[in-house]
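Let's practice the habit of predicting before peeking. Look at the sequence and jot down your guess about where helices and strands might fall. Then scroll down.
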Amino acid sequence: MAMEAGSIVEGKVTRITNFGAFVELEEGKVGLIHISEVADVYVNDVHDFLNEGDTVQVKVVSVEGNGKIALSLKQAKAKPPENDAQSFKQNRRGDFRKPPRQLSASFEDKLSKFLKDSDERLTDLKRKTDSKRGGRGSRRSD
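Done guessing? Here is the structure:
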């Protein structure tokens, strides 16, 4: 059976390096799980997540013409669907807060907000510097 990108296969971890883990697949083929594809969190050492001899299910990311097989451990894991009850997170004090909203503002909206903020900043700057320079009705004593 030929390896196809996107399929989930099972293999055995044969060797761990500082850049990933080699997995022996069916028919004696060997693929690489790059360190960036081991987990959803930052991976400093692959040994924290895998050991030699582990049997793992991985997703085939790509199969190149020269026989190199790229694998992913984190893409093979199904992500649970998020519902509204789980979307609230609890912080250290025990308070619940909503996750940040994803706003998709158009370019025109972003531009108008930028111009408004810029005008406000310039007005504030002029107001502060005019009083220090003695402009606008300030009198000089002779």
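How did you do? The longest strand covers residues 8-17.
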